[in-house]
Amino acid sequence: MHRQSWARGRAHWTLFAPAILVALVYGLMWQGLVLLGRGDGSVARISLFVFAIGSPLLLVYGFLRYNSVWIALAGDDLCLARGWPRLTHSQISLDEIASIRLRQSFIGRRFNVGEILVETRSGRRYRVSDIAEPEAVVNDLNQALRAFRDDENPGS
Question: Which of 26, 28, 21, 14 is nearest to 52 (CA)?
Answer without folding.
Answer: 26
